[in-house]
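Input sequence (495 aa), recorded before submission:
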Amino acid sequence: MRADNQNSKKGIATLELLIAFSFLALAMTGAVLVSFGGQTSNLDVNLTSKGFSHIASSFEKNTAAAIAGWDSFASASETKDIYTLGRVVLNISECMKQVSTNASWVTEKNRGQGIALVTLQGSTTTARALGGDCTEFTSEKKWDDPQRFAFDTLSPGKSTTIDVFSKIAYLGFDKEPFWAIADTRGAVLDKNNAQDFFVTFANSFNSDGEAMDQVNDIDVYKDNATGKSYAFVALASTTAQFGVIDVTDIYNPVLVVTRQLSGITAPNSSAWGWRIYYYAGRLYITARETAGPELHIFDVSDPMNPSEIGKKELNTTVNDFVVRDGIAYFADESDTRGELLIYDVSNPIFTDPNSIFELTNASRNLPGNQNGASIFLLGGRLYFGREAVSGGPELYVFDASDPRAASGGVPTIGTPTEIGASVWGINVTGRFGFLVTSKPGEEFQVWNISDFINPTLIKKYNFGNIVAGGIDYEPDFIYATGSATPNFQILWSPT
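Predicted structure, token format:
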């Protein structure tokens, strides 16, 4: 999640968490060594002191490397004298990484020694580009026993989408009031009784006489300049497909403006606003495959007055997408062209549709005729879900570290995973991959993706009313929409 490629200008915040057991182990070792004689003890103290010196130097180098190239900052190792120096990077979110800086060595008595310094390093530039919607801490749970934590129901209608920001959930619905807000900051463990999360408000709020329609997608962000929060919504309307709602006061949301997407002539549901994504002052919205451009880009640096600055004919319906570093990754329904389409959107010009163009060498046309369904980008790795393939894989991991340099499509990492069902939603944090699937009795799945070359299943769980793409994550909870009662639930794992 980057605003630009000027990594040298990216802000880095560091929280130092020195592992206590390292000191404890060293202290115990020193006590034992003393009993064997001062010479051995002095030698180990010297080696340990040098190990600490290497740790300090490596820490400074790691911080500099993160600043210089946030996207490319990953695990690495080197050898100096008798010391093996390394760092282990765990991507918590696009703006936060957990970094373990370590040094290990073997003494003359063939005794292994080691020191580790664990830190959190974050990109403030990326956090701002995401509008503050960024996970800061890795999950402390094992996620080996997913359960319902709490739930609520808004009637009537089925929920269509969800976005969670600071424990406040924003949901779209297919019937009035078409969207809702659930304040979960006071949620308590109660698996069997509904809690009153939904904020009640009338559906009559409007701007310039324009009313709400079915909400197909939502992305919420906080404006750093004003401190106000806005919900960008994709609407099932042929005349106003894009809306901006001021949600600073969640008990009094205001629809401040709507926009019709330019160039669309289809007079039916194909002209609906469909998927939406905010990044670095720009709002990207797709329409269903239409008679006209499916991708539209708005400048929303002033959310009260968004202006369309680019558009592009994609000739397909986009089921999910993400934007980073001027690159848009689309999971789409065009198997003929490829289920994963990758476009350069760095310099849109409203009057020049060619200013937005496909990176044909990076896009992928996967085996089979199943559509792309879901997508998630983290740490240069693109997690991609497909509709069900008979006897074939539905979950792919791609190397998206340098899509402009890709040849023959962004490379596949490891072996694609067979889920046995359509993967309608993906959310990744730390070592966990959370999936929404179409498989009865296994609608919610937790995967260990720490070894992204070979992901392993942790747990499948039956949440039968979870709908396509209807999850979001904030530590340590999954927020999920439902196609039946309850149509909103919070999931967790006690362990």
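Checked by second reader. The radius of gyration is 25 Å.
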